[in-house]
NAD kinase (Pacificispira spongiicola), 264 residues
Amino acid sequence: MTDPILSKKADLKIAIVASDTPRAKEAVSALRKRFPVEDDPSTADVIVALGGDGFMLQTLRRFIGTDKPVYGMNRGTVGFLMNEFVVDGLLDRIAGAVQLRLHPLRMRATTVSGDVEEALAINEVSLFRETRQAAQIDIRVDGVARLNGLVCDGVLLSTPAGSTAYNLSAHGPIVPLGAGVLALTPISAFRPRRWRGALLPRWAEVEFEVRDTEKRPVSAVADDTEVRDVRHVAISEERDRVAIILFDPEHNLEERILKEQFAS
């Protein structure tokens, strides 16, 4: 669904944010020569993000809860979350873009020293072993113990939007955006060897308890925010906050996720 404000392209105010790379900086210069740009993002109707998927995730988290949609153009590598970079017709493309509203995951990580750190994730929250020793992790869902003593390199909880990212590389399922589920996926599980993960309702609260933290230290990562030496991690969907992302109709995220399921 396209936001009505975006149909008024003559009055459309855009602000530009960009990653610190030569390609992104060149793109900023090209756009500023063609279009009026707001210096203050708070006065803009739309944020134009120039960079790769990592920068797009940072931008979505930065503007989450502001009701400002983000239209990304790829100046990185893969650009799964981005539109093609084309200068011509930018305002027309934004005006006709498809809007997608994403609820992030909130990670609450408690370290072995008792510190508590929180972070938001658009794609996934992952736990990783920090040394040569495999991690041992207990998993609870809504307070119920579901798997004790998972021996692994790690484990992750992915949103549908992130299911084609690291989750897919870890052999997790691709999840359609409207499915209303999260993907719980082990990373190189050793015991139980045949456990391939689970699909959970989006409203589920997932807890990871790390065993033997001194011998088998584990870090937790929410997208690109890392917390070292964790003993407990709780994850739930942040239902009261939303990130708004814009896609060209022919390259919307739902279609990309569908195509990935038939990719060879």
Observations:
- The first strand starts at residue 14 and ends at 18.
- Helices lie at 22-34, 53-62, 90-95, 166-169, 253-260.
- Confidence is low (pLDDT under 50) at residues 1-5.
